Amino acid sequence: MDTYRIIEVKESVFADNDADAEKLRQELKERGTYLINLMSSPGSGKTTTLTRLIEELHDEVRIGIMEADIDSDVDADTISRTGVKVIQLHTGGMCHLDADMTRQGIRELGDAELDLVVLENVGNLVCPAEFDTGAALNVMILSVPEGHDKPLKYPLIFQRCNAMIINKLDVLPYFDFDMALVEQYARKRNPDIKIFPISAKTSEGVAELADWLKDQIKNWHEI
Amino acid sequence: MDTYRIIEVKESVFADNDADAEKLRQELKERGTYLINLMSSPGSGKTTTLTRLIEELHDEVRIGIMEADIDSDVDADTISRTGVKVIQLHTGGMCHLDADMTRQGIRELGDAELDLVVLENVGNLVCPAEFDTGAALNVMILSVPEGHDKPLKYPLIFQRCNAMIINKLDVLPYFDFDMALVEQYARKRNPDIKIFPISAKTSEGVAELADWLKDQIKNWHEI
Q: Could you read off the pLDDT of B106-131 as tens digits, one per residue?
């Protein structure tokens, strides 16, 4: 038996996504659910990173995960093995999620009291950055094989994100990836961006990332 | 002195992109220019692959390259070192190119008689697949670090492409990438897709890809 459902989210009818996102942010604040919007290119390791973070966080925080994809349920299947609540969202071909699509997902996660919901957005460095999902925190992953020049080519996502996770540190010896340059380019787009080099495969750096996220969640719940 | 120009392409005014793409395809046929639309995720190695292909093809074919990005000119700079004609297209934040944007680029490449023009599309597995650029051939790159499950998650680009290049074979030992599975998944989306495993870094497999492209170009010019 499947331990997760697949939801076909409908395109939003709201003309003003920014206003709708602000409304969703308020609703989530009232119910005490911290929402993280996790973005990246296809194949940069969003699901593996989430799996590691769930291991670090699930003793202290009640977690729900929304996996957004155009098709397939491979990511929801992977996350369901961690034991946390997960649903697969299908976007009907769309390249991003907006606030109303995010709200449809949260509704389908149900009435369980969740301290933290993570939306794993569609793999895409362009469109997801253009739509506020109502999240309290925007986080992106850039993986080593993608190259250190990405902040030069895709400015908006680096501007919009509170944190950049640099994943796949374990393969750093096999790629021409310059850690100092990527930090310089990312900070040119966003001087305040937090940077976490990790390997989701070996768990290197994951504990530091999890500690920072715990602080963000705790501070938000206290405000 | 820069050896290439940067063009800010304007959003198309044509409501019917499919009809406009068909028109551009006819115009290109008349002037004898074969257009390839090269698509992939960010960082899968489009520019490095192009550099290798130019080395294999430039003795026999007059080549022009259009590098499309939201920002930066790093790719046009790289290609300019091969000596072929290149321009950098900036999309003004847009996630794809349509036929009219492609036409603006070809116009800026000038009146030189070119047998082959390659459009390196914006790095994105979703949106570029939705817009016919007027190309005679659609080619995508999937790189090993992205994982073999991508045809399950991003169906349209696999359906639309005549060929899939599997790049970064040199790092295959360091990733859980199943070559048999990716072929199976890709052919599920598109039974006729041609598959070329290569390493643009070591040039493994590039000659076979170049030979196939030469045949495509030759056959098209003869029809």
A: 999 987 789 999 999 999 999 999 99
ipTM value: 0.93
- Cα torsion A122, A35, A102, B69: sign: negative
Q: Does A128 touch chain B (CB under 8 A)?
A: no
Place of tokens 């692959």: B49
Does this model's pTM top 0.90? My answer is yes
For residues B209, B210, B215, B220, the Cα torsion angle rounded to the nearest 10 degrees is: 100
Residue B119's nearest CA partner among B69, B193, B60 is B69
C-alpha closest to that of B20 among B30, B12, B29, B10: B12
Name the token pair of B36. Answer: 């390839």
Closest CA to B118 of B182, B33, B41: B33
* B125 at A interface, C-beta within 8 A: yes
Question: What is each CA distance from A34 to A44, A160, B223, in whole angstroms?
Answer: 24, 18, 60
Domain range B5-140+206-217, CATH architecture: 3-Layer(aba) Sandwich (3.40)
Residues B149 and A151: beta-carbon distance below 8 Å? no
**Distance between alpha carbon B207 and the CA centroid of its chain, in Å?**
17
Average pLDDT over residues B66-86: 96
pLDDT digits (tens, 9 = 90+) for A186-214: 999 999 999 999 999 999 999 999 999 99
Asked if the Cβ–Cβ distance from A74 to B153 is below 8 Å, we say yes
Q: What is the DSSP letter of B38?
A: E
Q: For the CA atoms of B81, B82, B88, B94, what is the dihedral angle to 10 degrees?
A: -120
Give me the residue from B126, B152, B170 closest to A74, CB to CB.
B152
A41/B152 Cβ within 8 A? no
Sequential DSSP letters for B39-88:
EESTTSSHHHHHHHHHHHHTTTS-EEEEEEESS--HHHHHHHTTTSEEEE
Contact residues on chain B for A145, CB-CB shorter than 8 A: 43, 143, 145, 168, 171
> Residue A215 class from Cβ within 10 Å (0-12 exposed, 13-18 middle, 19+ buried)?
exposed
Give the mean model confidence (pLDDT) for residues B119-147: 97
Exposed, middle or buried, A181 (CB in 10 Å: 0-12/13-18/19+)? middle
The CATH code for residues A5-214 is: 3.40.50.300
Locate B76 and state its tokens. Answer: 């046009």
* CA A211 – CA A56 distance, rounded (Å): 9
Please report how many Cα atoms fall inside a 13 Å half-sphere around the Cα of residue A72, on the Cβ side: 18
Instruction: Specify the DSSP class assigned to residue A11.
Output: P
- Distance between CA A208 and CA A216 in Å, rounded? 13
